[in-house]
C-alpha cells in the first residue's frame, strides 16, 4: 500500500491523533470550569537564592591536586557546614563542583553512569577530555535555564601527564593547568598564582591548596568551615584528611 512502514517505537499518526483528541475531551469534561488554569501562578521566592563556594585544582609533577571548602550557603543561611564539593566520578577522575548543590550531585551521577557504560561497551575508560566533552554536550540543552553547574574535571588517563578541564552549564569548556571556581576564587587565585609550579612536591602542593582555600574562607562569607583535598595520580585518587578552615586561619 501507500502507507509507510511503522518502525519499532513509532505510533501510527492517525491512531495517535484520534487517541489524543479523545483523551483531551475526557480530561476537559472531568475538570470543573476554569481548571486547569492556562498558566501556573508565579510564586515569588522569600529571598534571593544567592550562594557561593571556593574550589580549585591544579596540575604539578605529582599529578592533580583538587581542594574545596565544605560550606553550602543559601543567601545568608549556612545550609550545610559539611557538604562534599569534590565528587569522585570513577577510580581516576574526580570533579570539583560549584553552583546549585542538587544540580551538581545529579549531573555527577549521570556522568558517572555514562562513563561506566562506556567502559563496559569498549573495555577502557573514556579520557578526561572525552568526559568533559560528554558533560558539556549533556548540559548544553539546559543553557539559559536555572540549571547551575560548574565543574572542574581532574583525571589521569594513563599517559605521562594528568588532565584538567573546566565545564560550565553556560556552554564553557576549557582545558588548563590551574582553575579556581566560586565566589572565593579571586582570593584563591591570589595565593595560587604565586605558588603553583610544575616542580612542587606532593606535600608542598597539598599545603598550597589548603592555604589558598583558607585565605578565601577568611575573606569570602559564602565559603568556610572545613577544607577537603584530593590527590589524583596514575594509581587513582586519594583523599586527604579534612581540616577545619576556621582553626587554621587563626593558627597559620
UniProtKB/TrEMBL annotation:
It catalyses: Cleavage of peptide bonds with very broad specificity. Keywords: Cytoplasm, Hydrolase, Nucleus, Protease, Proteasome, Threonine protease, Zymogen. The active site is at 53 (nucleophile). It is found in: Cytoplasm; Nucleus. GO terms for cellular component: cytoplasm; nucleus; proteasome core complex. CDD domains: proteasome_beta_type_5. This is Proteasome subunit beta. The lineage of its organism: Eukaryota, Metazoa, Chordata, Craniata, Vertebrata.
Amino acid at each position: 500500500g501507500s502507507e509507510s512502514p511503522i518502525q519499532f517505537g513509532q505510533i501510527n499518526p492517525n491512531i495517535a491523533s484520534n487517541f489524543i483528541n479523545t483523551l483531551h475531551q475526557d480530561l476537559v469534561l472531568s475538570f470543573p470550569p476554569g481548571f486547569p488554569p492556562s498558566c501556573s501562578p508565579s510564586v515569588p521566592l522569600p529571598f534571593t537564592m544567592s550562594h557561593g563556594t571556593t574550589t580549585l585544582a591544579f596540575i604539578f609533577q605529582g599529578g592533580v591536586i583538587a581542594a574545596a571548602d565544605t560550606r553550602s550557603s543559601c543567601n545568608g543561611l549556612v545550609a550545610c557546614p559539611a557538604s562534599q564539593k569534590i565528587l569522585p566520578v570513577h577510580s581516576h577522575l574526580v570533579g570539583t563542583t560549584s553552583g546549585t548543590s542538587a544540580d551538581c550531585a545529579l549531573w555527577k551521577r549521570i556522568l558517572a553512569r555514562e562513563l561506566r557504560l562506556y567502559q563496559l561497551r569498549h573495555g577502557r575508560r573514556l579520557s578526561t577530555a572525552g568526559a568533559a566533552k560528554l558533560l558539556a554536550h549533556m548540559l548544553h540543552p539546559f543553557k539559559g535555564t536555572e540549571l547551575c553547574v560548574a565543574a572542574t574535571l581532574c583525571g589521569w588517563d594513563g599517559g605521562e601527564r594528568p588532565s584538567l578541564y573546566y565545564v560550565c552549564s553556560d556552554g564553557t569548556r576549557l582545558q588548563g593547568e590551574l582553575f579556581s571556581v566560586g565566589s572565593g576564587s579571586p582570593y584563591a587565585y591570589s595565593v595560587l598564582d604565586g605558588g603553583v609550579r610544575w616542580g612542587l612536591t606532593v606535600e608542598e602542593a597539598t599545603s598550597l591548596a589548603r592555604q589558598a582555600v583558607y585565605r578565601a574562607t577568611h575573606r569570602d562569607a559564602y565559603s568556610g568551615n572545613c577544607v577537603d583535598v584530593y590527590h589524583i595520580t596514575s594509581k587513582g585518587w586519594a583523599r586527604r584528611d579534612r581540616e577545619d578552615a576556621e582553626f587554621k586561619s587563626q593558627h597559620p
